[in-house]
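Quick log. Single chain, no ligands specified.
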Amino acid sequence: IAIAPASSLTPAIVRTSFEYLERERGLSMALGPIMARSAAFSGARLAEGWEIKVNPCHDLDLPRPEPRVVTWTFDEVRAAIAAADQLGMPSIGDAILIGLFSGQRQGDILALVDKAGTNRTLAERVADGEPMRLVQSKTKARVAVFAAPDLIARLAAAEARRKARAEE
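-> predicted structure:
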């Protein structure tokens, strides 16, 4: 193993390591280290004391695997939500259910806000029959999604957890 400063890593070196890993382990396995390095460099650029000005993992125009469609059964969805709850991470279960019923990207789900400025929570609005409203980050399309009963209950539970934490 060679030891060198992170700033000595160049796009050419990153691409060469990618090509080696792709030959030896396959495309998906080769992309993993690139994504991890890219995240590390992005964080270092913002951190105090690092001399990182360029992320050598950006704009390499690397091949990507074909997207896979993964279909879960209702039992698998319920099991994933139950596991998240059991592990004390109910927000993961919340996100699974919101994603399932809204069909939206994670970032768009996390950006759900009260655009009308009513200061009512999402849980309160969907319980009153209002749709979840958002603007998709990729297409800029405006979307309104009405919540199913399971999601309404989950959002109410999430709001109760939030209030309990605020009172602590």
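The chain has seven helices and two strands.
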